[in-house]
Amino acid sequence: KNEVEQSPQNLTAQEGEFITINCSYSVGISALHWLQQHPGGGIVSLFMLSSGKKKHGRLIATINIQEKHSSLHITASHPRDSAVYICAVEGGTSYGKLTFGQGTILTVHP
Amino acid sequence: EADIYQTPRYLVIGTGKKITLECSQTMGHDKMYWYQQDPGMELHLIHYSYGVNSTEKGDLSSESTVSRIRTEHFPLTLESARPSHTSQYLCASSGTGGMDEQFFGPGTRLTVL
Question: What residues of chain A lie within 8 A of the CB of B43, using their CB?
């Protein structure tokens, strides 16, 4: 079993739909990262969080440390949101070393 | 916008050649990383550095080597490329704090024939 599990692996939505991607992890962490990877391969950091909730535009990330679970929500989805969304965890003493989930492929149709 | 650069972006090379993938950042970050990603697969850490003259191997075994002689520069070298080294290589950096956002370069897509 991987240390970081994401679900679903593939997600198709219609423009405007509310989207949720889930991430569960099995180790103690100091932080959890949500990343976005576009087809060209470039990766952008969306959020880094260790507790509670963060919001940036239409994106919201939450984490429940006790349940070892995080969610990434996209409100009013748009075709330009189509990408691979990756959850990664940073261990307690790892200082930047990330362990990655397998990614969720999101496709938003107009 | 992240100021982290990788060259070349694409490289096709024959078996046995020595190659160096370049990574530079202008943000003054102490921590730098190399990740390997096969198509459709998750990223794996292969090397990291916490500062000048500091390099460590990551979680995924790799035949590549790295050096960190200057803060801004973290090149990766393969002494003798093989087809099994075909992959995408991503460089990243983060700041000096205990928990910092990572900034990723655009990646180098390596094909070894």
Answer: 86, 88, 98, 100
The answer to whether the CB atoms of A96 and B59 lie below 8 A apart is no
Are B41 and B27 a contacting pair, CB within 8 Å? no
Q: Could you read off the pLDDT tens digit of each residue along chain B, which spans 113 residues?
A: 569 999 999 999 999 999 999 999 999 999 999 999 998 888 999 999 999 999 999 888 788 999 999 999 999 999 999 999 999 999 999 986 666 889 999 999 999 99
A42 and B CB contact within 8 Å: yes
Chain-chain contact of A96 with B48 (C-beta, under 8 angstroms): yes
Cα–Cα distance list, B92 to B4, B30, B41 (Å): 7, 11, 18
Contact of A44 with chain B, judged by CB distance below 8 Å, is answered with: yes
